[in-house]
Amino acid sequence: MNPSITMPPQVAWASGALSDAPLIQKTTHLGDLNNVFADDDAWRCCEPTLAVYRVEMFDTPSGEGELYTGVTHLNPGRVGNEFFMTRGHFHARREQGEIYFGLRGEGLLLLQDEQGHTRLEQVRPGSVHHIAGFTAHRLINIGSDILSALAVWPSVAGHDYAALSGGFALRVTADTLKLMAKEVQNG
Description:
About 10% of the residues lie in helices and about 35% in strands. The protein is mostly beta strands and about 190 residues long.
């Protein structure tokens, strides 16, 4: 008996493009991100149809023990002095974790626990990020190119956006990055 060899779905590591399998795609525009950016006046002045990020994922089975695989492509840009970012979320099933892999661009992963403690991790090609259960997460594009990150998460995790309706406890602005860079230079 000769075993059959199949070609699994593919990811182009340099661009984050997924192929060779059915995909689900969703684009989030500025108009979809009400109450996400701190400067509401600046947000209202932006073009609401401008794409902020696009998520594509393999259309795979869901249920206990199943995993989703997808890529977030976050465009560069700002609203006021705040960088483009994803909406960010906890998982509906809080105990579920997730893994991110940086593919291209330059950004930050903002992580926040249920007590409001935050930390930032640098996202770049080759970076690997373990997002523990009970941790909200958001990507922030601080570069001039698209930030792309591959994610793998349990299909049963779900999303809880409402828990962060007041926003994350930390904001990243152009001024914040200058201060962070100054601290590193003086440290």
